[in-house]
């Protein structure tokens, strides 16, 4: 997992698997998010995600809900059709909007950010 700060957007790039084993590195991202006052959006890059199990989905839901409590909106791109379906079934899409690619996500979030200022 890697992160990148782009203005008021934190991009979290998930590579490989998201399972219970990734809980500690996944939640180590939070101190970085709270250090910047201008963070509005968390954008998950899931193009490198190869596998996510129920524990990984639970981690993602927990992270997104905690982010929401801290006034950060969550989004994702690069989610395979299979995982899109699962995310809808478990209700994750109620907390996290999905985009087909990074360009679409960044354009939309930058437009929202400009509108909100």
UniProtKB/TrEMBL annotation:
InterPro entries attached to this UniProt entry: STAS_dom, STAS_dom_sf
Molecular function per GO: anti-sigma factor antagonist activity
TM segment ranges: none
Coiled-coil residue spans: none
Positions of the STAS domain: 1-109
Listed PANTHER family: ANTI-SIGMA FACTOR ANTAGONIST, ANTI-SIGMA FACTOR ANTAGONIST TM_1081-RELATED-RELATED
Name of the protein this chain belongs to: Anti-anti-sigma factor
Origin species: Effusibacillus lacus
